[in-house]
Amino acid sequence: MSYETVLFEVSDRIATITLNRPDRLNAMNQQMKEDLRECWQRVKDDAEIWVAIITGAGRAFSSGADVGSLDSRGFTKIDRWRELCMHEGIRALPTPRRMNVHKPVIAAVNGIVAGVSLDQVTEADIPIASEQATFVDPHVSIGYVSSHEMVNMARRVPVAACLRMALLGSQEKMNARRAYEIGLVTEVVAHEQLLPRAQELAAMLCKNAPLAVWGTKMGILRGLGLPIEQAEEIAAGYLEVVEQSDDHAEGPRSFVEKRKPVWKAR
């Protein structure tokens, strides 16, 4: 299946999602939202996919919302009362967390990432960046409130760093090194090594028991913000489920037999 604004490839259990509007710096319009939603759903549902990488084509990861679409028919408008009371507008944005993607996601930030597209980075499990990457939240500079983007980021980085980015808007861009210093990304690499490094990390993830990886991810994320006792109960629930799997038995068996484990994700 092909998409109008996104490239989707699967190889060796790794799905690579590439935002593909390079002439518009991969700005997100309604079509890209719909394409991304289908891609994340495929990542969730396809048993042959264990890990996903998201990146951008050309010199940008994504410049955020296509501003030309905000005042036109480029985005589907939603009744404001429903948006405020039911958060339908936020739910409509296809990101790993909102799509409940339980498989690990690597964000390979190849250039500028701005505004709404910051969510694809802050919701990735292992975000890495090219030395050419920059991060900016221009909402207040074009008359918009920075909402879910900074709410998400404030759970990943120091609040002061988040506020600085949000309040200065387009007046300040954060470079890759600073993003690494505050924990927005986990690694900065030479530009030409970005995708190879993302693929290397994805291959490393695939060497681990997939159900254990997925359960570990969800156990950590579902427990955030809860008292530690409740968080531990959630993680224990994922442990109990994985303990019933074939892969749980394969791990100790392969260790005793001194061979590489053969994971089946079941």
Please sum up the structure shown.
The protein has 266 residues and is of the alpha/beta class.
Can you walk through the features of this model?
The structure is a single chain. This protein is an alpha/beta fold and 266 residues long. The protein folds into 2 domains: 6-206, 2-enoyl-CoA Hydratase, Chain A, domain 1 (Alpha-Beta Complex), CATH 3.90.226; 210-256, Lyase 2-enoyl-coa Hydratase, Chain  A, domain 2 (Orthogonal Bundle), CATH 1.10.12.10. Helices cover 42% and strands 16% of the residues. It has 12 helices and 10 strands. The longest helix has 16 residues, at 30-45.
Number of helices: 12
CATH topology of the largest domain: 2-enoyl-CoA Hydratase, Chain A, domain 1
Radius of gyration over all CA atoms, rounded: 19 Å
CATH architecture heading of the largest domain? Alpha-Beta Complex
Helix content percent band: 40-55%
Mean pLDDT: 91
| Order of SSEs | EEHEEHHHEEHEEHHEHEHHHH
CATH class call of the largest domain: Alpha Beta
Q: How would you classify the helix and strand content by structural class? A: alpha/beta
